[in-house]
Amino acid sequence: MTALFALATSLLWGLADFGGGLLTRRTPALTVVVVSQSIAVVVLGTIVLATGAWSEAGPRLWFAVAAGLVGPVAMLAFYQALALGPMGVVSPLGSLGVVVPVGAGLVLGERPGLPQLAGIVVAVAGVVLAGGPQLKGAPVQRQAVLLTLLAAFGFGAVMALIAEASATLTGLFLALFVQRVTNVVAGGTALYVSARRGTPALPADGFPWRSLPALAFVGLADVAANGTYSLAAQRGPVTVAAVLASLYPVVTALAARGVLSERLRGVQAAGAGLALVGTVLLAAG
Fold it and tell me: Which residues fall within 8 angstroms of residue 136, CB to CB, at 6 or more apart?
């Protein structure tokens, strides 16, 4: 079940990133984050009320609050790094956040077998290559690298924190709700400050009402991915769950290929193949 939940996480995150990427072509990235997460808050709030998840409130929710604070910082750092570019270097480097939950699992005493260790190495290499790194002839600013590493650490920290935020299914609903509320508060504050400084918060034609279904999908897919990852980490080795969940860049690349007809470069195809081999090794181990 660990592999199944973790692969579902990579699918959901990959599709959410693809959808978010399309939306940010027309709407400021921070606005996409705040609106999509606000929709997720409404849905999760309804689920929490319907399931009586408030009874699960306890000290572990502080992990959800921390994840909610770290997430927007990581996203902003990542978007800024993408702006500095080149994207072909920034994007795959962002997936290196997997080392945080994997390292946490090793510190907590998890000891993967030889097939799993091989699978971890192969899968991580595949994820990096699937991003299509363009190192030749593409100068990289030091600031872009530092921002990307900050974002990667943040993404990995969110994975580790949300896995510790609950012990039951209803508790997970409450933890995800708290995380998203924190996301909206933090992101909304940043959006307000940005608007006060003169940065447009909306497209030229006003609020993107026509994009609401897409924004809802992005927000809910991201929430669902956090949930499936938490379930994966609770049901098996965190080292395995984290690596399988980090395959989302492959999903994003394949979605771009299928929807936008973007061609995979040779290095990306090789990376996708390595990621698949790594997945098989992890599942078999």
Answer: none
SS (H, E, C) 66-127: HHHHHHHHHHHHHHHHHHHCCHHHHHHHHHHHHHHHHHHHHHCCCCCCHHHHHHHHHHHHHH
Q: CA 250 to CA 272: how far, in whole Å?
A: 6
d(C-alpha 181, C-alpha 251), whole Å: 27
Helix axes 238-245, 2-23, angle to 10 degrees: 30
Predicted confidence (pLDDT) per residue in 44-96, tens digit: 999 999 999 888 888 999 999 999 999 888 877 776 776 665 555 556 666 66
* pLDDT confidence bin for 1, thresholds 50/70/90: confident
CA 64/CA 164 separation, integer angstroms:
8
Mean pLDDT, the chain, rounded, equals 79
Q: What are the two backbone dihedrals, phi and then psi, of residue 205, each rounded to the nearest 5 degrees?
A: -95, 15
Q: What is the pLDDT of residue 29?
A: 78
In three-state form (DSSP H/G/I as H, E/B as E, the rest C), the secondary structure along 142-205 is HHHHHHHHHHHHHHHHHHHHHHCCCCCHHHHHHHHHHHHHHHHHHHHHHHHHHHHCCCCCCCCC
Nearest residue to 127 via CA among 229, 271, 241? 271
Given the structure tokens 């909304």, which residue do they identify? Answer: 188
- Cβ of 40: how many Cβ atoms within 10 Å? 27
pLDDT tens, residue by residue, 159-205: 888 888 888 888 899 999 999 999 899 888 988 888 888 777 777 77
- Residue 94: CB partners within 8 Å, gap ≥ 6? 78, 81, 148, 151, 152, 155
For residue 93, give both structure tokens.
Answer: 């480097």
